[in-house]
Amino acid sequence: MPVITLVGQTWAGRVGCYYLERCGLDEWITRNSADYIQKAISYASASRETIDAIKTKIYEAYWNGPLVDVPKAAELFTRLCLAVYDRKAMGLPCIHLRQDDSGELHQATFD
Q1: Distance from C-alpha of 76 to C-alpha of 74, rounded to nearest angstrom
Q2: What distance in Å separates the CA atoms of residue 60 and residue 76, rounded to the nearest whole number?
Q3: What is the pLDDT of residues 47-72, one digit of tens each?
Q4: What is the pTM of this model?
Q5: CATH number for the 1-68 domain, one of 3.40.50.2000, 3.50.50.60, 3.75.10.20, 1.10.150.130?
Q6: CA–CA separation, 21 vs 19, rounded Å?
C-alpha cells in the first residue's frame, strides 16, 4: 500500500515520489503540508468501495509497472550510471536525473 508522500529535498523525500510516479500513482504525491493533510483525511474517510478500488489500482499499477520489470530497471540503472560517468568525465557537476515516459533522461526539478 503506498503512503501519501510529501515531496522533499532529501533522498527520502524524493524516492517515494519516484516510485509512485513510475507506477502512475501521482495522486499519492503532495507538494505541501496542507495538501498532505487534506489527502490523509480524504483517504481515511473513504468508503469501503473506494478503498477496494484504490487497492485494485495500486495492485495493477505495481504488477504491470516498471518497478517489477527487472531487465528494464537494469537498463535504466546502467544508463543512469553512464550518464553520471559522462558528466564527471566532462567536468560537469552531479545532478539529479529522472526518466520520462519515453525513456529519455532529464535533469530532475523539485517544486
Answers
A1: 5
A2: 22
A3: 999 989 988 988 888 888 777 788 88
A4: 0.56
A5: 3.40.50.2000
A6: 5
